[in-house]
């Protein structure tokens, strides 16, 4: 019985952990904001799912990525034009755009 409880606890822990790591991508927010530029690479935006284009940007670190979004960065408007996005949304959106299509 003890073993069963331990196994169940392990399953729950793993499930919670992956839920935290893979925050739900807010596709509605992506479509009405980021996609406008990042889907086609408009104005030099790193294209969605173009892993190589995103690599040097990601290397600047999460904090810098969020700062670029909040303040704007060259042709990228402040907040990426998503005014109801929070930092969790931004992180999920960056992850979505910077990795290969699933
Ligand atoms: C109006 C067009 C536009 C929209 C909308 C937009 N971006 Fe961008 N984004 C850009 C451009 C252009 C760049 C590249 C700027 C440069 O490197 O000069 C960029 C760069 C970035 C970068 C890299 C910043 C850096 O420091 O290298 C991140 C992260 C990013 N965008 C996230 C987002 C997210 C998340 C959204 C949606 C919430 C979004 N963008 C919406 C145009 C846009």
Automatic annotation (TrEMBL):
Keywords: Electron transport, Heme, Iron, Metal-binding, Signal, Transport. Pfam families: Cytochrome_CBB3. Residues 8-101 form the Cytochrome c domain. GO terms for molecular function: electron transfer activity; heme binding; iron ion binding. The keyword Signal applies. Gene3D superfamilies: Cytochrome c-like domain. It comes from the Bacteria. Residues 1-23 form the signal peptide. InterPro entries: Cyt_c-like_dom, Cyt_c-like_dom_sf, Cyt_CIE. This is Cytochrome c5 family protein. It comes from Parahaliea maris.
């Amino acid at each position: 019985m003890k073993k069963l409880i331990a196994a169940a606890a392990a399953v729950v822990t793993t499930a919670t952990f992956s839920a935290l790591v893979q925050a739900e991508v807010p596709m509605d927010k992506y479509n009405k904001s980021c996609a406008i530029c990042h889907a086609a690479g408009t104005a030099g935006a790193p294209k969605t799912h173009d892993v190589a284009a995103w690599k040097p940007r990601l290397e600047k670190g999460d904090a810098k990525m969020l700062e670029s979004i909040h303040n704007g960065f060259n042709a990228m408007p402040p907040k990426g034009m998503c005014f109801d996005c929070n930092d969790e949304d931004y992180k999920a959106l960056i992850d979505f755009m910077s990795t290969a299509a699933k």
